Protein: Aldehyde dehydrogenase family protein
Organism: Candidatus Jeotgalibaca merdavium
Amino acid sequence: MMTEKKMNLPDVHTELYINGKWENGEKERIAVINPATSETIAEVAQASKKDTERAVVAAKAAFKTWSEMELKDRVSILHKVGDLLEEHADRLALIMTLEQGKPLKEAKGEIQTNIESIHWNAEEARRIYGETIPAPNNHKFEVKKQAVGVVGAITPWNFPSSMIVRKIAPALAAGCTVVLKPASSTPLSAIAIFELFEAAGLPAGVANLVMGSASDIGDVLTTSKDVRKLTFTGSTKVGQLLYEQCGQTLKKLSLELGGHAPYIVFADSDLDEAVDALVKMKF
């Protein structure tokens, strides 16, 4: 007879991460629930609007130093994060499985994707080239690519680790600083990644983590003039609201909305194989 092996949550912070410090938020903590057992596995700090505003201030203050840091040093820190992700892969996967519910094998696959993404973005930072454009009368136009500033990021629950890395890694590589709001049901995966940011020597204020009310945090990120770009993955309805709010400050906006995609099956295809592939991709 097979017995079920209980998986215990590894040690992980439960606080906000603002300006290089772990701290409790102003609001009451909320429980993180294991969807497989319905048990509470942690209680996580919640940020108020004031906490989020402090995170934005920290990110803005850190921007000049981070964006002007020697490129080789910035790249080195990102590679260190990638190395730490690989070193802690099993721990990160277990945290994800316990709070989000996906099979451990899939969680490990997601972490592997993160490792590759971090290293890839670190190297792409070396190739942020400008352009020289010929113009009439012996003139030349020079195009320089510069970091936009503070980036606000809002991520979903379904890929609680890879969606964070997919948004933050290119931002950090480009020289931007970040304020992240993860999904309320899967904050521990975000916290575990930020622990590695800290261990890798990411300077204080470069990456900040706030958990809490979507309306409170979202309001600050969309209306603050200091946040120059917002990246969001989630529902179309929320995306429309963010689009409207960001218009007040003319900030750049990246949206990935509505997780449905067309699946085309041609008349001459193997229908059974197509159905199997569709089920695997969707579920």
User: Anything to note?
Assistant: The mean pLDDT is 94. The longest strand covers residues 227-234.
